[in-house]
Amino acid sequence: MDRERCLIVAVQLSSDNEENDMEELEQLVEAAEGQVISSVIQNRQSIDNRYYVGQGKIEEIANYVKELEIDTVIFNDELSGSQIRNIEEIVEAKVIDRTNLILDIFAKRALTKEGQLQVELAQLKYSLPRLIGLNNNLSRLGGGIGTRGPGEQKLELDRRRIKEKINDIQNLLEDLGKVRETKRKKRMKDQIPIISIVGYTNAGKSTLLNALVESEYSDEEDAEHKKVFSHDMLFATLETEVRRVTLPGGRKAVFSDTVGFIKKLPTQIVEAFKGTLEEIKYADLIIHLIDINDDNLQLHKETTTKLVEKITGKEIPVLTVYNKVDKIINEKITTMSTNDIIYISAKNKYNIGYLLETVDEKINGSKSKYSLLIPNSDLKSYYWLYENRKTDNVEFTGEGVSLEAVLYDNEKEQYGKYITGEDNE
Ligand SMILES: Nc1nc2c(ncn2[C@@H]2O[C@H](COP(=O)(O)OP(=O)(O)OP(=O)(O)O)[C@@H](O)[C@H]2O)c(=O)[nH]1
Ligand SMILES: [Mg+2]
Question: I want to staple 344 with a disulfide (CB 3.0 to 4.6 A). Which of 132, 201, 351, 381 is the partner?
Fold first, then answer.
C-alpha cells in the first residue's frame, strides 16, 4: 500500500523556545508509516480555539491539501472535538492530532495482551469526548493512520457502551497487574535488585539492555535469544522487558527496559500504561539514558526527569548515562565519567564495564578481591563462592582450595577466617 501523504502542522508559541519540534513530529509520522509531504509552522501567542492555527492559515492549509493531494493533516498538539469538527469543515482531509498519532503508533506496536488492552483503553478515553468529530471523520474518509488498532469499531459505539468497555478493560488490566505483582514479589523475595533503564524515546535503552545481555552470555547464540527489539524509530519498545545480569562482583541484578518518553506524552497513555510504567517505582536504581547528540538534549532530559518523578512519586537514586558517544569526536568527554555521570556507547559497548562497576557499587557497596584458603572440611563455601562471586586462580591443594574471590564489604567478616591476603589491584 502507498504510504499516506501527510501534511504536518505545528504552532510555535512565543512562550517556549523549542526547536526541532517538526523533526520529532516527522519521526512520529514515520513511525506510523506515513509520509511527510510538507509542513506548516505558525508563530502565535496562543493556540486558536477554533482552528488551532488562525483562520487564514487553516484556509492556506486547505489549499495545500488540494494542491499536494494530501490524505491526512497532522497537528502537533491534542485537539478538542470541536476543533477537529471546525477544521474538517474547511480542510478536505483526515484530521489527526498528536495524541491520536502516538496512540496509533502504540496500537501498531502493542504485542502482548496487556499492551493491546492498555492501548485500547487510552484510545477509548481519547475518543469519548470527541465522538462526533471522530465519527464524521471516519465514515467520510476510511482507515489509515489514527484509525487502526483495537479501538477501530468501538468509535461507533455510543458513549454509554464506551464507558462500559472502559470499565471492563480496567478490570482486566487490574487482573493482569496482579500477575505482574506476583512476579515482582518473587524477585523481591529473592532480593534481586532492580535497575530501570529510562529515557526519551530512541535514546538507546533497548540497545543498552542488549549490550548487557551480551556481557552476560559467553555463547553468542544464547545471547541472541535474550535480545530485545531495538530500532531507529520512535517507540520501538512498548512493553517492559527484564533481563538478569551478573554484576562484576558476582551478585545478580535485574535490568528493565521500558517504553520511552516523549514531550507532551498524552495523559491517556500515562494513565492507561500505569501498570507498565509503575514498574519503575520498584527500582532500586534508575539509569537515565540520554542521547548525547540530541539537539534538544536539555528539554528531553527534563521531560524524562519530570515523568519519572510523577510516576514514582518518590526519590529513587538516579545514575545519568550519556549514550552514543561514538558519534562525537571528543576524546575528552569519554574520559570524564564519574560515579554519577557516565559516558557510554551501547552500540560499540564502550564503557559498559565501567557502568556495571558503578551500578554494583551503588547497589551493593564496595568490594575487594581476596586470596582465600578454604579447608576441605568447608568445600560448600568454596562451591558457593565459585557459583556466586567472581573467582580466579582456583587450586586444589592438600590443605584445601586456594583461590582469589571478590567479596563485598559486608561479607568480609563471614569469610575472614579463610582470607590470606587482600589484592588491591
Ligand atoms: N551510534 C550509536 N547509535 C546507537 C547507540 N545506541 C543506540 N543506538 C541507535 O539508536 C537507535 C535507537 O535505539 P533503541 O535501543 O531502539 O532506543 P530506545 O531508547 O530503546 O528507543 P524506544 O524503544 O523507541 O523508546 C537504534 O538505531 C540504535 O542502533 C550508540 O551507542 N551509538
Ligand atoms: Mg526500546
Answer: 351
Ligand 1 pocket, residues with Cβ under 6 angstroms: 199, 201-207, 230-232, 234-237, 260, 323-324, 326-327, 345-347
φ and ψ at residue 3, rounded to 5 degrees = -75, 145
What pLDDT is recorded for position 2?
80
Closest approach atom of ligand 1 to CA 230: 16
**What confidence tens digit (pLDDT) does each residue in 147-160 have?**
555 444 555 556 78
Residue 321 pairs in a beta bridge with: 289, 342
Beta bridge mates, 285: 195
Which of the residue ranges 55-69, 266-280, 296-310, 409-423 would you say has the lowest mean pLDDT?
266-280
* Distance (Å) from CA 329 to ligand 1 centroid: 18
- Structural domains of the chain ordered from first start: 4-156 (3.40.50.11060), 191-364 (3.40.50.300), 367-423 (3.30.70.240)
Residue 229 or 187, more confident: 229
- Asked whether 116 and 110 are in contact (CB, 8 A), the reply is yes
| Closest of 291, 267, 286 to residue 98, by C-alpha | 267
- 208 alpha carbon – ligand 1 mean position (Å): 8
The pLDDT assigned to 328 comes to 85
CA-nearest residue for atom 21, ligand 1, is: 202
- Residue 147's H or E segment, with its range, is none
* Tens-place pLDDT, residues 181-197: 888 888 778 889 999 99
Q: Which atom of ligand 1 is nearest to the CA of 345?
A: 31
**Mutation test residue for ligand 1: of 230, 243, 276, 328, the one with most atoms within 8 Å of CB:** 230
Helix (H, G, I), strand (E, B) or coil at 104: helix
Confidence (pLDDT) at 378: 93
